[in-house]
Amino acid sequence: MLALRLSRGSHPLVLLRRLLVATASAGVGFLLLCTLAYAVSGPHPSDPALQRLAWCLAPLAATVQFAVAVARTDPATRPRQGLSAVGLGPVRMSALAAASTAVSCALGSTVALLFFMHLRGDLSGMPFDGDAAELLAAGEPLPLGAVVLLLALVPVVGAGAAAVALRPRRRRDGELLDDEPEYAAAPPGGLPWGVALTAVGVAIEAYTGRSTEGPGGTPGGVLAGWTLTAVGLAMAGPGIVHVCGRVLQSLRPGAMRLLAGRALMDDARRIGRPLGVVCAVVSALIAASALAGERPEPFGPLTALGATLVVACTVATLLTSAVEARQARTATRAGLLELGASAALLQATAMLRAVVLLAVLAPLTWAVAELAALPLRR
After folding, report:
1. By C-alpha distance, which of 318, 334, 170 is closest to 233?
2. How far is CA 135 from CA 39, 81, 294, in A?
3. How far is CA 110 from the centre of its chain?
4. Highest mean pLDDT (candidates 16-20, 92-96, 119-123, 211-215)
5. Which residue has the higher pLDDT, 69 or 134?
6. Among 140-144, 180-184, 206-210, 216-220, where is mean pLDDT lowest?
7. Which are the contacts of 79, defined by CB distance < 8 A and separation ≥ 6?
8. Are 137 and 144 in contact (CB under 8 A)?
9. Which of 26, 146, 195, 275 is deepest in the core (most CB within 10 A)?
10. Spatial distance between the Cα atoms of 182 and 149, rounded to a whole number of angstroms
11. Predicted local distance difference test score (pLDDT) of residue 180
């Protein structure tokens, strides 16, 4: 109930972000229900339903990542001084953030169910009644338990991920931290492991692409390879951003390079992982577009919907993480302005950070895409 009241009283931009989470959840729920309808319509030896369900994991993961990013930037669920006295400490606020995420995702799942039933012809009185009855197996009953399980997947996973991401952390003396620790104290780890996982993912794609005839390789192998590549780039992202910041402020830097490099080092963990995931998605799109002309049949509408969800959620996650990083630098920005720094200098610093990241990550994304697509070309 408290989560609903906070949602009603939130800023319009916060409500818009929650609405976007609900929309993404609706898209994933619709994909899962379409997979269930495909499974109950009959056996499909050439295209098993389990394989289609596996392809829904990418939109699901992207939606959960976006929901966590929105929960992190929600001002209503941030710990504040004085709230602990009324029982809303860091632990309770993290639970509140998880509940808010579950409410948004559950709203999207409900919309997905209504839209799915409408296209099947189970609901009438609206346009497009039953237009996809044959595609969605309107003549076959759907198991109620499977429908509930699939629709509860996004709210449960999203709420759990938000609770884990926003859980209060402790120092060695046992004191609770309201937010993440200072980032600039130590460089983020994971860069060597991320590079290794990316290489393994590309190798799996190459192996599965050569092991079967026809363009595209084994779909399961391609999905597994791309998943490892995405996880590897997400792990390597914070380290790459941190290294960029360190290099940028080396060799007798001026004020602009020093500020830009320090900001990249401070924001490495906030924006590094979303940047890595965006690189993985863009590299997959480049590889898919290069192989589109070699496919015997075009991609279907559900594949297009899943790809749209992945791209939209990853880009929205990156933008939301950038907003979080900007909010974290509010006090630093105000202090610099009080010390006499000009607004033009701070804007040029932000532009320099964006240019450096683009100059480093764009060639990396293109190289991963080319390595992934090369073995699949015939």
Report:
1. 318
2. 11, 54, 26
3. 21
4. 16-20
5. 69
6. 180-184
7. 88, 89, 90, 93, 168, 178, 179
8. no
9. 275
10. 39
11. 45
d(CA 378, CA 228): 24
Enter the tokens of residue 340: 């006499």
Phi, psi of 314 (to 5 degrees): -70, -40
Three state DSSP letters for the chain: CHHHHHHHCCCHHHHHHHHHHHHHHHHHHHHHHHHHHHHHCCCCCCCCHHHHHHHCHHHHHHHHHHHHHHHHCCHHHCCCCCHHHHCCCHHHHHHHHHHHHHHHHHHHHHHHHHHHHHHHCCCCCCCCCCCCCCCCCCCCCCCHHHHHHHHHHHHHHHHHHHHHHCCCEECCCCCEECCCCCCCCCCCCCHHHHHHHHHHHHHHHHHHHHHCCCCCCCHHHHHHHHHHHHHHHHHHHHHHHHHHHHHHCCCCCCHHHHHHHHHHHHCHHHHHHHHHHHHHHHHHHHHHHHHHHHCCCCCCHHHHHHHHHHHHHHHHHHHHHHHHHHHHCHHHHHHHHHCCCCHHHHHHHHHHHHHHHHHHHHHHHHHHHHHHHHHHCC
Token reading at 92? 């309770």
The phi, psi pair for 73, rounded to 5°, reads -95, 5
Lookup: tokens for 246: 């360190």
pTM of the model: 0.84
Report, as an integer, the average pLDDT of 121-141: 66
Cβ-proximal residues to 289 (8 Å cutoff; 6+ apart), any chain: none
Q: Interhelix angle for 343-373 vs 255-266, to 10°?
A: 60
Residue bearing tokens 């791309």: 226
CB 270 within 8 A of CB 328: yes
Rounded to whole angstroms, the Cα distance separating 317 from 237 reads 14
- Backbone dihedral angles phi then psi of residue 169, each to the nearest 5 degrees: -100, 155
Task: Compute the CA torsion angle 339, 344, 349, 350 (nearest 10 deg).
Answer: 120
In tens, the pLDDT along 162-199 reads 988 887 765 545 554 544 444 544 678 888 999 999 98
For residue range 51-97, list pLDDT tens digits in order: 778 888 889 999 999 999 998 887 766 655 555 555 566 677 778 88
Cβ atoms of 244 and 356 within 8 Å: the answer is yes
